[in-house]
Amino acid sequence: MAEVVFLTGVSDVLDFAGRLLRKKYREGARVAVYGPPPLLQRLDQALWVADQLDFTPHVMLRAGAALPSASMVERTPLWLLARPEPVLRCDSGINLGLDALDLGSAHERVAEVVSPDPEAVAAGRARWKHYESQGHQLLHRPQR
After folding, report:
1. What is the pLDDT of residues 4-25, one digit of tens each?
2. Bridge partners (DSSP) listed for residue 59
3. pTM exceeds 0.90
4. Which residues cross the membrane (predicted)?
5. pLDDT, tens digit (0-9, with 9 covering 90-100), for 123-133
6. Among the four 5, 83, 90, 119, which has the fewest Cβ within 10 Å?
């Protein structure tokens, strides 16, 4: 079963995700980030224009795009995508969206990032119940 951490009260999801990804990259993790395409595009741009000394290598895999070569998959630690792609073999998953994805079966560790927006809170509660019903280990870490 996966460990699922709900990070709630995140007022700036984009900034939070960028900081979390830079931390995970420095730790040597392989991470898949999920969310709506417009948000992932903004995150992609933010990661490319970050401070030169803080470069965070990543690839955005657009919906319907073919998977990159095996060597690129092996070399790339961070992926931005809409749905889980098992061939990427990422140990961690980060969900920035409202959709309930079956991330607990795809990753050992999952971070569910939840903003204080009422729609996001309601979607987060539904995702909590989904993970709970599957028997995953759940943690709650408010970010306020």
Report:
1. 999 999 999 999 999 999 999 9
2. 79
3. yes
4. none
5. 999 999 999 99
6. 119
